[in-house]
Amino acid sequence: MGAATHSRTHDHGHSHACRADPGTMVSRAETLCRARGVQFTALRREVLEAVAASERPPGAYDLAERLSRPGRRVAPVSVYRALDFLMELGLVHRIASRNAFVPCAHEHGAGENVVFLICRTCGGVDETTSPEVETSLGQTLARAGFTPAHSILEVEGDCGTCRRERAAGEA
Amino acid sequence: MGAATHSRTHDHGHSHACRADPGTMVSRAETLCRARGVQFTALRREVLEAVAASERPPGAYDLAERLSRPGRRVAPVSVYRALDFLMELGLVHRIASRNAFVPCAHEHGAGENVVFLICRTCGGVDETTSPEVETSLGQTLARAGFTPAHSILEVEGDCGTCRRERAAGEA
DNA sequence: GCGAGGTTGTTACAGTGTATCACCCCGCGA
DNA sequence: TCGCGGGGTGATACACTGTAACAACCTCGC
Hints:
By secondary structure, the first copy, chain A, is α+β, with helices and mostly antiparallel strands. The first copy, chain A, has helices at about 20-35, 40-55, 60-65, 75-90, 130-145, 160-170, and strands at about 90-95, 100-105, 115-120, 125-130, 145-160.
């Protein structure tokens, strides 16, 4: 995907590895938590790493299962709490149309909107920002007399890689 | 809300009545079904009427409850089937961020995107279209090399009426 | 009449998310 | 040192959302 998209799925030749480097995410989290005086606990770190490490956006129950081991069970409710925390910090986003979670690839400015590009073939999700959309949406809302607090924009379709692969397959 | 917004919540002085005239919706449905040679059954009509008549977007279970009477129980699964049917026809939309359903106020062209304006105060949902957003989103997607199939855009905030009411209340 | 296809009823179940309470850990002040 | 308080986690239970599978029905056309 293009350079402007802060690609998280990189150039995957379908050898998906990770969508965001877990180490980098953890560093950002630590910095943020220190700044805000909140705790970055082991569970929160593990949940963040798991989200960052998965190729496709996991659900809360996926994460719970992935973090559980013979000696230690992580209940979904704990995962939800950690996810809420991470979303509060802007390190994770929720994909409403999938009930799934993605690591946030950006250092957002506050209130900045993002566009999620959800590939229906490979299941990957890319995240991008768009000033044009931002301004045109602002105009539309103003015309409607609506004061936005928060918005979600999710597009389902085919990412460039999958489209090319399909075209090659059909040839 | 503005004239361009195909307002469904009209000028509610919080005496909400209906978001779309059920009779009109039913007429459109009948026409559409005849044209496509599919059945517009009693259940489908009742579900459509119930969605059209409620001030705030109902969930599937709300509808099931509302349509059930002492002598006749409508199971959620039946409601889901009717809703799927109505969505197929473009008569109803699903609000992903709320797990709720709204009647579609437009006669859409196919593939036309809509913007949902969800008021967090009164819970009403308005629906509008925006050519500007459409084109700017198209540009963004093209730049990302992404082929869209379908997109959702939901904005949560305060509608004009509620904002004015709040301002008046604070004064 | 009778078969075929579509619609609905019914039950069961999977998936998603929240409420509640108990416990633990750690820091802080008496 | 003890007790206290607050945030975090564990555990259970539950509510809400959505789907699978199958039986019964209804209608339409032959």
